[in-house]
Design a protein that fits this description.
heterodimer; A: alpha+beta; Rossmann fold; 2 domains; B: mainly alpha; 73% helix; globular
Chain lengths: 377, 298
């Protein structure tokens, strides 16, 4: 409990969040005669009270990582510490972690009240106290008065709320969620995303959230750890990941990206000058690539503009000549497929307006975008 | 339906008026089942009804055979022994069978091995197994020899031809009927529920008490019912290894038939059948059991 002094744990009605440290976490499975590495050297510092999302495609090891934190899987190597104390040898029922499962895992033979009261019963909380805490928890998830129903009598969204109430009723300092909104329709999912954010703010505890939905991750998280192939590809705030992806995987997985093959020609401070399709393009670059190196530049489709002659930008701009190969009107915006030089295809998204002239297929045009929106990956 | 070109359009004919006189396709399942149905009717249902009729129609229409049962000491004792044996055997099967069912479901690597152990005796005739128990439990049988060698007894004890022998042998024979429905119910429990219980602070024992056991009750009910009903009608095993005075209903029926006392035998059969049916009727009303019974019989 080394960090207890800083956050005053246990002083309020609900303790503040736990910090979680993963060090070189590994999980391998023996399959027939091959060894599969589900999690391959994951190190993460999850701060007290943070909303951290593990984001990645299926098979990236995000769920396995979560299961190891919960205690349902044992790491092959590495360590998991909660508030500085290793929990690897501790069975799940002693870790005092709240958990919301993908399919909610509500006990079908128990009523909502009994489901939510389940963790309290295991902790020997008296019946009267239990009733009070259960009522509070149901209030918290906007389901008061549903206590006597059985899970099968509830809709998916309601079941999900019950699962959340059950996971927080015993006031854990850490809440784990494994794709809790995966089975719900889009509208409901968006409502519940906001509710989860509110819940996180209300409770002040640490949330670790697993999802493969990048939009969900971007809306909800304080920080996101993008996982790929058992490794952490990048950790950072949603803005960090979107504006400054570290690598091609992150740039492609979060949002839509254009990838421009280029050759490094020059370096100016922290900006690299590279040649793409015969044009010099400037990009932000954390590293120091050598001149002549083949690199990939990335930029977001909605940050590109058609450059008209009268629109000379004040910011440093990149410019590129292209041909329109496809034009799609999609309501709130127009989406253009463009081709630069001999084959690099580029996507451009433009907010739709009756005042803006639409480009026709085959038309030649010039596009421009800010150097700050160009990253070398 | 005069211009039906593709057979697929037959299936789409839902909205058409009901002018089709007879859809022979519907009759196919019935036709397929017909040979067995006729066989069962002629060789099973009719003889059973004929037998049961004898209890009220011998020599003339009368209920006197049932009336005499009420002060028939032999019948009452036999009925009590039958119920007593069935209850003991069912409880024995439950206590021994539940952990086996758990092992069968929980251990992936051991499951085929356990299943063979359960089913191997299942494929052996009841007669053979009852003889085997006679050999094991006899005065100079394996059990007595072992107890003597261990110094736990000084002279051979009488096990064969006691109620205990009947119970041991019947438990052995009926165990699969208890294990398989329970294993079926356990297999249907979502593993994430067990994880959830553990994550929410329940120790393995508390998880068993509050999650696994209640969710497997449908299987327990089905297994118990099946075992109990089968135990009620057991004949060969109690006749072979049981005590000479511990007569069960089925033994009494056989005895009466031997003596050509058909009316009495028929009356006893009716009582046995009614007991089993009454139990089934009550059990089907219990929540969840009806379904469990259906699935476990697959």
């Amino acid at each position: 409990m080394t960090s207890a002094g800083t956050n005053g744990a246990g002083s309020g009605p609900i303790g503040r969040g736990a910090s979680v440290t993963l060090s070189d976490l590994e999980k391998t499975y023996d399959r027939a005669n091959a060894v599969a590495k589900a999690v391959d050297g994951v190190s993460l510092d999850i701060r007290s009270g943070e909303f951290l999302t593990l984001l990645g495609p299926s098979g990236s090891g995000k769920t396995t990582t979560l299961m190891m934190i919960a205690g349902f899987e044992t790491p092959t190597a590495g360590d998991i510490a909660i508030d500085g104390k290793s929990v690897v040898a501790m069975p799940p029922y002693r870790r005092n972690i709240g958990m919301v499962f993908q399919n909610y895992a509500l006990f079908p033979h128990l009523t909502v009240e009994e489901n939510v009261g389940f963790p309290l019963k295991q902790r020997g909380v008296s019946k009267a106290e239990r009733a009070k805490l259960v009522a509070e928890a149901l209030e918290l998830v906007h389901l008061p008065g549903y206590g006597a129903r059985y899970p099968r009598q509830l809709s998916g969204g309601q079941q999900q709320r019950v699962a959340v109430a059950r996971a927080v009723v015993f006031k854990p300092r850490l809440l784990l969620m494994d794709e809790p909104l995966g089975a719900l329709d889009k509208q409901l999912r968006e409502n519940l995303q906001l509710e989860m954010r509110r819940l996180h703010a209300d409770l002040g505890i640490t949330f670790i959230y697993v999802t493969h939905d990048q939009e969900e991750a971007l809306t909800m998280s304080d920080r996101i750890a993008v996982m790929n192939d058992g490794k952490v590809a990048q950790v950072g705030s949603p803005e960090d990941l979107y504006d400054r992806p570290d690598n091609r995987f992150v740039a492609g997985f979060i949002g839509e990206s254009n990838f421009l093959p280029a050759i490094v020609r020059d370096l100016e401070d922290d900006v690299v000058v590279a040649e793409c399709e015969g044009t010099l393009i400037r990009a932000l670059c954390p590293g120091r690539p050598a001149s002549g190196e083949k690199v990939t530049l990335t930029t977001r489709p909605e940050r590109l503009r058609f450059a008209d002659a009268n629109q000379a930008g004040t910011h440093p701009q990149n410019r590129l000549s292209v041909t329109v190969t496809e034009a799609v009107f999609a309501g709130e915006r127009c989406r253009y497929m463009l081709q630069a030089g001999d084959g690099t295809s580029i996507v451009l998204k433009e907010p739709s307006s009756a005042a803006i002239r639409r480009r026709a297929v085959g038309e030649r045009a010039e596009i421009a975008w800010s150097v700050a929106d160009t990253i070398l990956v | 339906m005069s211009e039906v070109v593709q057979p697929a359009s037959l299936a789409l004919a839902v909205s058409r008026p009901k002018t089709v006189p007879f859809d022979w396709r519907r009759a196919v399942p019935l036709l397929l089942a017909a040979p067995l149905l006729i066989y069962m009717l002629v060789f099973y249902a009719l003889p059973v009804v004929a037998m049961l009729l004898r209890s009220v129609n011998d020599p003339t229409w009368t209920l006197s055979h049932y009336a005499t049962l009420f002060d028939d000491v032999v019948f009452q004792k036999t009925f009590w022994i039958t119920i007593n044996t069935s209850v003991t055997v069912t409880l024995g099967c439950l206590i021994l069978g539940y952990p086996v069912a758990m092992g069968l479901v929980r251990s992936r690597s051991m499951a085929p091995f356990i299943l063979v152990i359960i089913l191997l005796p299942f494929w052996t005739s009841v007669l053979v197994r009852s003889y085997a128990w006679m050999v094991l439990l006899g005065r100079h049988g394996l059990v007595n020899e072992a107890l003597l060698a261990l110094g736990m007894i000084e002279r051979p004890i009488r096990i064969l031809n006691t109620p205990l022998a009947t119970q041991i042998a019947m438990i052995h024979i009926l165990l699969p009927y208890m294990i398989l429905p329970i294993a079926n119910a356990l297999r249907q429990i979502d593993p994430s529920l067990i994880r959830a219980a553990s994550g929410l602070g329940a120790t393995p024992f508390m998880t068993f008490r509050q999650v696994i056991l209640p969710l497997s009750m449908s299987g327990v009910a089905a297994g118990t019912l099946l075992t109990f009903v089968l135990a009620l009608g057991f004949y060969i095993t109690p006749a072979m290894v049981g005590g000479p005075r511990d007569i069960t209903l089925s033994m009494l029926i056989a005895q009466q038939v031997d003596q050509l006392n058909w009316a009495y035998a028929a009356t006893l059969s009716a009582v046995l059948l009614a007991t089993a049916l009454a139990l089934l009727a009550v059990a089907r009303k219990l929540p969840g059991v009806g379904n469990a019974f259906k699935t476990s019989m697959r």
